[in-house]
Amino acid sequence: MKAVQFTGYGEVSKSIKVSEIEKPIINKNEVLIETYAAGVNPLDIKVIEGDLKSVSTFKLPATLGYDISGVIIEKGEHVTDFNIGDEIFSKVKKQGTFTEFVAINKNLIGLKPKNISFEEAASLPLVGLTAIQALKRGKLKSSESILIHAGSGGVGSFAIQYAKSIGAYLYTTTSTENVKWVKELGADRVIDYKTVDYRAIVKDIDMVLDTLGNEFTEDAFKVIKNKGSVITLVGPVDAETANRMKLNKIIQLFLAFKRRKITKQIKLKSAFYSLLFMRDNAKQLHEIKELVATGKIKINIDKVFPLNETLNALLYVKKGHTKGKVVLKIK
Ligand SMILES: NC(=O)c1ccc[n+]([C@@H]2O[C@H](COP(=O)([O-])OP(=O)(O)OC[C@H]3O[C@@H](n4cnc5c(N)ncnc54)[C@H](OP(=O)(O)O)[C@@H]3O)[C@@H](O)[C@H]2O)c1
Fold first, then answer.
1. Pocket lined around ligand 1, Cβ cut-off 6 Å
2. What does the DSSP assignment read for 44-78?
3. 306: domain range?
4. pLDDT over threshold 80, residue 139
5. CA within 20 to 30 Å of 17's CA: 144, 155, 188, 216, which one?
């Protein structure tokens, strides 16, 4: 079967190829999925460029991709909740969805929402789980306010609609051409980052979802109220996460040094700061299915590429201006 793999760490255009690999054999707890579509994420690029080498290692060449939608064509004897022919979507644990068939543990799949296409379903798992987990970690309530950076991106466009379903007041940032669309997603106040400095508008809010990092992480503390929350997807590792990862003393010291400015801000605002690493969660996949089925979450597919044009899909996502999501159509 065909698979898009990366062969070494480095520049995306020099590191991927289309390979012929063996079709997987499932174990008792797995299903075999015929892949219909696979979502493309900035994470796929970070993996190729070696940004995650310290936390995740791959035996190369390795098949790319985390998001998938497709149909169950075989199941292991311990799989009782799903049947052959079921249409599913999933975010797999160890990457490998840019291929025609994928073996997935039964605990990582959810039934695909019936009212959307396979391409739309494949765009949802990673960003949907991230947005849900981030807003839950920040304990966002209906009476509260949030700033979601990059509202037109994969995570941002889901998070806006999810925050709206909670009932929160929400600010978001995007560029001029996406202002109207992002407003339609449910943002109360859309700030065009090309013309306006959001720090002049957003004040005393309860939570920031930081999808951009660098100065955006530090500045988040300037717009939250005392005891507010900053949940980052890309900022420095917080002390609690570093402890949980059981990192050695030298790495802990290095991370503490890297977040020194943030530590100062946390103290000044008595704030809650956390770096989220999204996790697989079948219960939340079901929550996504319900949100989509009831029309609370709508999906915007920016571009669809065939599997043999994966490189173009990755280079497009790497530009950082995706409107919604980019997907590979595999069947
Ligand atoms: N830690 C985790 O578990 C986790 C999980 C998911 C994602 N992430 C990370 O979170 C980041 C966002 O992910 P994503 O999938 O949402 O990315 P994405 O879809 O590629 O985001 C693209 C969007 O960012 C917007 N953008 C770019 N610069 C901006 C700026 N200065 N201000 C406001 N918006 C800006 C663009 O809007 P315009 O075109 O209008 O500029 C575009 O719509 C990535 O770095 C990703 O790797 C981490």
1. 41-43, 46, 126-127, 130, 149-150, 152-156, 173-175, 178, 193, 211-212, 233-234, 276-278, 317, 320-323
2. HHHHHHTTTTTT---PSSEE--SEEEEEEEEE-TT
3. 2-124+299-329
4. yes
5. 155
